[in-house]
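Complex 339.
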Amino acid sequence: MTTSMTTQQRQAIKIFTHKGNVPDSESEQYHLNVSQYPNSEGLKAEVLRRWNQDGIMVVSNSGMTHLSELKRWGAMIFDDFVDYEGGSAPRSAWGEGVFNIDDTPSHINMCYHNEMCYLPAYPRCFLVGSLAVPKLGGETMVSDNHATTTALLATDVGQQLKTRRVRYIRNMTDKHSDKLSYKSWQDTFKTESREDVERYIAKTDWEYEWLDDGTLRTSYIVDAYEWHENLQENLFFSGMVSHASFFDQWTGFNQLDDPERPFTMTYGDGQPFNDNELQILFDIYNKRSFPIRWQQFDLAILDNLRWTHARPAFQLTENEQRVMGVSMGMMRQRVGAHF
Ligand SMILES: [Fe+2]
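Predicted structure with fe (ii) ion bound:
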């Protein structure tokens, strides 16, 4: 397995160069007012219409009283809900098929990403709901991936990614070691058995190795773009949160070399992105993005290929909380790009 890339002394990466550059008035077209649809049939038809047309909708006054009800909204579009096996972030369930999202400390900028882009199969539909929100901050940024891809393909790094692809490297610690840990392989795969993990990996194209300290290291090469079957279009399908620079802002992990951090991404041949390329990749997500400013029991439904999401750092005042849940499904195997 190629893990011998050198760690560069990185310049400070700017993750959010614009905090949303589409006026709120423009993003309001994606808001769905439930009160206009008095019966469930009419509501479902409108949800499906918007799903196909825009791939995004934001629902205020949704009528939810518990995050487990996200599933009811998802069920208007699909019925194969994900149980998050193999996911990279630590999560706990709100109920079957509904997971906690607030696992990253609030002072950390959660970079733009497509959910589960580092796995051989991914959810096309991604739902987020809010249970508790601060008065200020804590918004989710969403970025139009058509605009992102168009901007990226006009750059050298975007063109290189077409042929050189991308490699995701993950280090999942042993839950029973005292090594600094982001997520263990036991929690990732919901098992204590290495054989179970190896059975999962055997169904993928991943390379893997068990390190002496019990860490599982995996490496996966995949297209940086993904074909959208309905739009008949290639879209950039990645996540800068999967790059080691995400941990530059995270005390403890930022002392580790890139290949030793919980995850990183490189070109498919193992060559790291240079500072300039990294900043281009971060910048393009800001080209056509807008914030979802949450109220309690709002929810958003996203086509995970058409829209990329992120969460800027925020601060809570006393007695404030930010509690969010996610649910996802409509699973698709990666087919890669059709250039
Ligand atoms: Fe996410």
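The domain at 24-333 is CATH 3.60.130.10 (Double-stranded beta-helix).
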